[in-house]
Design goal:
The chain has about 425 residues and is of the alpha/beta class. The protein contains twelve helices and 16 strands. It binds pyridoxal-5'-phosphate.
Amino acid sequence: MDLSDFGRRLSAETGIGRLMDDLGKALSRGNSDMCMLGGGNPGHIPEVETILRKNMQKILDTPGEFEHAIGDYVTPRGDELFIAALAKFLNEQFNWGVTPENIVLTNGSQTGFFMLFNMLAGKQANGTTRKILFPLCPEYIGYADLGLADDFFLANRPDIEFIDDHTFKYHVNFSTLDIGPEIAAICVSRPTNPTGNVITDEEVDTLRCLAREMKIPLIIDSAYGAPFPNVIFTEATPTWDESMIMCMTLSKVGLPGARTGIIIAREDIAAAVANMNAVTALAPGSLGSALAYELVRSGDITRISNEIINPFYKERSQRGYRQFISGLDGLDVFLHKPEGSMFLWLWMRDLPITDVELYNRLKNRGILVVPGSYFFHGVDDSWRHRQECIRVTFTQDAEMVERGIDGICDEIRKAYS
Ligand code: PLP
């Protein structure tokens, strides 16, 4: 098949593609022996699912609502009622001063990033090319293949703070962060997928000032952050102003199947994304906003996030962290301080094999994780650290996660010996 440049880029096998494939196969096999500690699927939290089921029932029981939700295209910006409720909710919660013109929905935030990144970076009207800068890496694997041009991303190696004998934290290394005219936007996930890092308020403020100075947006990917699902276990202030683009999603609230991403941005940026929605999809899907509308309108989504979703992941995170610490005792292995998200990040200093070799050994014994090197896109290849890490997801069945962590500890011990 003769493919265009676009075709070759997007149809090639990618890290994210292989990951989704492994995960999908493991899920569809119904293979109960497979420990799925690899994907980014949120957990199935019964209390949340009961609430969503009730919302669906209400839609079904209210004359005309189901027919509207499935039978009508919404505007390219997304369901207007939902957007108005969200603007009100954000202003009441955080006093952000957003209007519906600052908000646009997309078919999942992944699609939103594809549009935002390519709208800002790549070839410019004046012939120059610009890039997306990750001020901190490792960073979300899903960004890696979104660029429609070469050398699309630039990433900055982090500073490493040792917190105790087993724990470390990445920080933005501002002394090496170079934001020249070739940078189109700065992007960071907070909490970070894959590490569970939550960059500090000071780091956000400094990035915001740097971005403002350069007249470029600071994109905060809040897929796991505030106000929902708020899977944050530390102090962090959610901020937004017109120099920022805040990306949220309903996926990690328990609705990944509904594909609903939310972008909060300056009016012209939000309008541009809405126009791109019209071209690529006519309109975003409306089932997600229909299911979440009442939760946002009533503000109940905050209670669900803080009282159900956050404690579920916090308990999982702490349990997994403790199990790793005792299972890896005596080895030169560190965990990133778990401050949020659905992952634990292991750094195996001077591991005699690569992360990919470890991934394969684990896969052969029925445990799926993600090799850490997939998350270092945009950073130079020579840093050994990138082959010394893995990401472990703790969202699935608790007993399976425990079995998986035991197996990982055993395999790491073998690799060192
Ligand atoms: N951003 C981050 C950090 C993620 O982890 C994910 C999914 O795992 C996404 C964005 C995309 O989420 P969705 O497209 O389901 O909204």
